[in-house]
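Why 5-deoxy-glucuronate isomerase? Reviewers of the renewal asked for a concrete example.
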Amino acid sequence: MYDKSDPRASLALKAPASTIAQTGLIAEPQEAHFYADDPQLTNDAGKAWMHRGHNFLVAYTEAAPGVAHERKAQIDEYAVLLPKASALIEWNGSQLHVPGNSLVFVPPGDSSVTLPEGGVLVRILSTQNTDLAEGCGNAQGYKVPRTHIPPFQPWPEPKDGWKIRAYSLDVPQEEGRFGRIFRCTTLMINVLEPFEGPRDPSKMSPHHHDDFEQGSLALQGKFTHYLRWAWTSDMADWRDDEAIEMASPSMLVIPPPVIHTTRATGEGCNELIDIFSPPRMDFSMKPGWVLNADDYPMPEGT
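Here is what the prediction returned.
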């Protein structure tokens, strides 16, 4: 149930099921407190924390100045989020200088990202890249398959072929649009507007997803994630409600069909990024919501 002020209240809702929720859908949320946990990688390139969902993973890096972060024979398209620092991105013999406060999609193949002055580098990739997926701090959390999540299927390739695509996040707010949503063939990323101070507790938006996870990456501030498991006919599925408090940087992967909502609780700037893989159809069907929709077609028949 979305608050009436939330643009997502306009999304088409499925008819309520006539029977109780099916059993066997229980999975635990996956928490990563980058600000408190040891990094998975430490080398001349910097420190990197890696955390995964079923279809996606995040590599959050405190990058050293001038050192290239390479991907050799990358299987599929991936995203580079530059909260503040600028970067030089190279792919297939081409180079692109990208300022901070940008989101970039990089094609498959060999590529590199270099931050000349260093800073925070966030790369978001699919778990089809097993070399990274197996190195995530919570890799063991996915040894049991999520059978209720459909097999990963990428969306169609860009209309005009592969190239580095950079998008500024300096996007003015618009009435009725939710966040700043971008998609590529493998991911949908919603860079939510920074929230100053705590969220009004009378305007929460608890909801659930039937068959896909949500990754919530906190870049600034503090958040409390509220989770509720629906009752099924099998008491083995039942769980107590959870209220997970996380500072930043951190990441929480929320499994379906857990009911969830998040409240910003920091007194200053609170900034959250939502991640989905593959892209969400419901968001894509909303005119004007996906800011780069002209670059990436939807699957045929939609």
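Helices lie at 130-133, 281-284. This is the kind of structural detail the renewal will allow us to pursue systematically.
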